[in-house]
Amino acid sequence: MRRKIGGVTSQEASQDSFFTAVSVLDSLIRAGMRQVVVAPGSRSAPLAYALAAAARSGVLDVTVRLDERSAGFTALGMAKACGTPVGVVTTSGTAVGELMPAVMEANHAQTPLAVLSADRPPRLRGTGANQTTWQPEIFGAHVRAAADLTSYPEEEPATQTAAFNDCLAALTGRDPRDWGAASDRPVGPVQINVAFDDPLTPDARMRQILTQWAESLRDLEVPNAPVALDHTVLAALQPSEHSERESVARTVVVAGDGAGQVARAFAEAIDAPLLAEPSSGARGGACAVGAYPLILDGPLGREIEKVVLFGKPTLSRPVQRLLARGDVESIIYLPRPVAWADPSRRAERPVASLAEVRQAVGVCDPSWVQRWKASEAAVGAKLERLIADRERAHGLPSGPGVARTVAQACEKDGVDLVVGSSNLIRDLDMVSLPAVPDPGVQARAHGTSHRDSTPVSVMANRGLAGIDGTLATASGVSLARRAPVRALVGDLTFLHDAGSLMLGSHERIPDVQVVVFNDSGGGIFSTLEHGKVAKDSAWEGAVERFFGTPQVADIGGLTEAYGHSFRRVTDLGELREALREPIEGITVIEVLGTRAGLSEERDRWKDLADTIDG
Prior knowledge:
The chain has three domains: about 210 residues, Thiamin diphosphate (ThDP)-binding fold, Pyr/PP domains (Rossmann fold, 3-Layer(aba) Sandwich), CATH 3.40.50; about 140 residues, TPP-binding domain (Rossmann fold, 3-Layer(aba) Sandwich); about 200 residues, Rossmann fold.
């Protein structure tokens, strides 16, 4: 078998592992991969040396992380931030398994994450050889495609070539049978398992070849992958004229995670209340309604006749109840398949054309959204009083107060926000409705104009809504966008990923300001059914131990041990002051709070909407 890199064949160089590594990386780079995260290991050395050459030539941004789980979530954050394939490299053995949480999230969040797992040569499988296990297809259904490259590139394209091309297609949204066409499946993670045999270090000739290869890619442009478009969108987003040709109904638009601006535009086109989650990408505008989970269970919510769903809703039980109501016509807009649901197993009717959605729901009378906005104002005022009452009673900031303060800071300075998947994102959903900021504000915040036209984004790992990897995700967003980022997390979310504060001394430090609301445990369980069980004195201790999981970690000491800046605040005024500090490197701001009275407060929240005349 003869393969060429830099004008030299594999037989001439006797470095087959490097020809394999470069062949794989070359294809990924040509498919649009521009960022890779590497966890150290010897078996993956051919990939590491090739990546070092590519980084030196400026073709790739390469980040090294000491821990594989952190590497996986850092790459995930990068891919979520840029929308193009991002690679993550590990050695063989348990290192590969450490990527499972990030791969699972990438699957459900439809994120193009390329796992490059180094493996021992096939002859060592099943022999008990050190650090050797069965790695092919280890991620099962959580990847769109998997390739086990044991002798790649093939002399003639065969099974391994087809599997690798399928991986490239899954990462880019292309049809593997027609590279110029869009695929009918969602993008998502893939596993490219690459077997490397000795030698694993490049000789002098191979080092020269690696440099030549990397230099040859300097002027390569990122290709635009084809996209399956719904060509009815523009017509469907025409403003409502309330003509006799369009029916009038009491419709609401729900925007879940990843819904995008089309959800907001559609709500405004038909004059419908917009119920948008923080990470929907659709928040803000004239039709957006705050505190909507409380309103949904009140009199106004019971008047809803139709609902249109964009994206994946995960935060609110009232929204789930609405979507399941038999007396409400529910439609989910699905211009293309999604990874997170089989439409045949959901209550909503799937519709691929936005024009068909518009025809099905018609328009809303202008008074409909006005009533929702009035209810929002009334519920919001009462909600603010309840929040203030609890803060006064305990002398400490509350989760909603912290969430609102952080959101206001982001709105003011244009810094993007990554939120942990626990109580705080629900608090943010309830008390904050960020508007699209003035682009000039962002330019001042970032010291650049490269994102002037992009609004502040709120990101969260809502694919599977786990708390793991949030700090690494935020770091990945900052590194990919080369911009400051804020992260809003609870104490358990912070501690779960504290290892991601550990950075190699040669690595670029992301600019991340982490706000930790420390109420010593899992406050979210107080707001669920477990809070009611805890009111039974015989079971209170069990609920606190198994669900509250109180902790006494020294967050400041932990932060400083990793070499980062730390500040503790005890009120919202101090928090506002801390948030005004420049975001340079990693800074952790701990806000002391309490879970005392949380369950009772949320019970009072649920009664608010019934006190408002819709």
